[in-house]
Amino acid sequence: MDRARNDRPSAAEEVDPAGRHWRGWVLLFWLIAAAVMIVYKWKAIQWFALGDTDDNLRMAEVRAWLNGQGWFDLRQYKLDPPNGASIHWSRLVDLPIAGLILLVRPFAGGIVAEQAAVAIAPLLALGATLFSLTTAVRRLVAPAAFALAAAILMCAQSTLLMFMPLRIDHHGWQLALLILTVAGTADPRRARGGVVTGLSTAVSFTIGLEMLPYLAVAGAGTVLRWVADDREADRLRAYGAALAAGSAAGFLGFASYDNRQPVCDVLSPVWLSVTLAAGPLAVLLSGLRTADWRWRLGAAALAGAIIAGGFAIAWPNCLGRPEHISPELDRLWFKNIREAKPLYQHPFRVSLPVIALPLMGLVGAGLALWRARGTALFATWATPALLALFSVCMLLWQTRAGPAAQLLAVPGATALGWAILPALSRHRLMLVRVFGTVAGFLLVSGLYMHFALSLIPAKPVTKGRKAINTANARCPTLPALRPIARLPAATILTFVDFGPRLITVTHHRAIAGPYHRNQPAILDVHHAFRGSPETAHAVMQRHGATLLLLCPGMSESTIYAAENKNGFYAQMIRGQVPLWLERMPLPQNSPFRLYRRTR
């Protein structure tokens, strides 16, 4: 009876056909958005312009797997040869990319197949995100509010960048799973909602731990709902069982050889032990029969203490930063990563557009909680509101939290828009109906900040910044790298951030890429460019590098030039070439300088 009643269209859906046929509308919206994005990125797709280091390495990993590298062997042997670089990912995100390549390659060849894969794979994650988001908003706000949520998502610039064609790294899928978790917490069918929340958490952990803080908040919210209302026992029980089973399956099916060690930065035995303890404890808690919420709170606190205490005793080495970055690597490398800096350390033209939507989402979530007080919807809104608040706080830690913060803000922003936009659209004055509605949407979507900043004159781009932008744009291109690719395969000393692009579009190897598990190789590159020519020579000899590739002006190179004006890189730029290096010819318009080690 309950299932039949829940499957029947609501009164709002009977009045609004769009709400009743929402899946078809979401599918149409996704197809249009995907088409627009492909058109927007068409030239970049044709030139295989994977702009991010992780996107390039993901393609290198997929190719290695398709060419015979083992399922559980995720080492990248074109970095830090001969042992290869340990990569802390899983094969899960490789599956759609590899599947698209295998699907297209027999008909169009390998080049077109890879172009199709990098164009389409991120859009699959966008589709999953759209469906999960609109499902959550229909449960939280109103059945017909899905259209407003989809429109607001299209205004979340930081989030959308994670789904653009060519953005094949795992962040898009993790965002999709994060908002699916929110949809699960909002599900009125408690057991089904618990299963969705637990499984989406487990799958996200299988991909990586980037969303761990948010998913921990969602898990805590599930427990606290049970504390407040013992009728939530079914949700808690299903959540615990799905979390444990899903994590175990994810570990067994996707953990690489390196990740089966007790490392702290992935779903290894360390974090698997946490989920395998938390899941059964959640199931045990759900079986506690007491009407007194204080007993339930005490039991939940005890379970949390057992998990935290057991973690501290069993894995004391994982109580700090999971990456285990040394102080030297943190000083020379990590602190120079822009997205790892807090939002307030960025210029206002960068920070304000990122935080505008999260603030609107926080206001909307607070309003929704206030309006739902005393009703069952209050508990439904509690976890999304807590996540919206938490995500804003995360921006004060690292700017890379921007995409998640904007995505988690959409339900609250939709609730805010659903409260004010209908009244504006029905106003008796036409000017209010038209301009008021537009202004209201600009407000709740955060677009107002973009328009406000456009009214403030920007500082002229300096000559130095133009040179950096030019180098960053030219050096990774296929035409620029084509002469390098024609040379016999070699190990090349080049910038850390350039390593993934080099190994992806040429047959060459590089010493390092920007991946924290390969600290010795990263430090070697930094020591080479910051230190003396003798240090650089020793680094090249140690790694068997026979070529040196420089792209003067790239962002990373400015750090070497600024922090040691008499270091090896600075000397090379001034034309002070040591005797053990020989300049190699390149086309006249090449942005590179290439040298061969002669001894």
Brief characterization of the structure:
With 599 residues, the chain is mainly α. The protein contains 29 helices and five strands.
Can you describe this structure?
With 599 residues, this protein is mainly alpha-helical. Among the domains are: 187-319, no CATH class; 472-597, no CATH class. It is 64% helix and 3% strand. It contains 29 helices and 5 strands. A 5-stranded mixed beta sheet has the order 2-1-3-5-4. The longest helix is centred in the first third of the chain and has 31 residues, at 110-140.
Radius of gyration, in Å, reads: 26 Å
Number of DSSP helices?
29
* Low-confidence residue ranges: 1-8
Q: Main beta sheet: strand number and arrangement?
A: 5 strands, mixed
As laid out across the biggest beta sheet, the strand order is 2-1-3-5-4
Q: DSSP strand (E) fraction? A: under 5%
Class from helix and strand fractions:
mainly alpha
Q: N- to C-terminal separation?
A: 82 Å
Query: How many strand segments?
Result: 5
Helix fraction by DSSP (H/I, runs of at least 4)? 55-70%
Q: Which word captures the global form?
A: globular
Average pLDDT taken over every residue: 93
Could you name the key traits of this structure?
599 residues; mainly alpha; 5-stranded mixed β-sheet; 29 helices; 64% helix; disordered N terminus
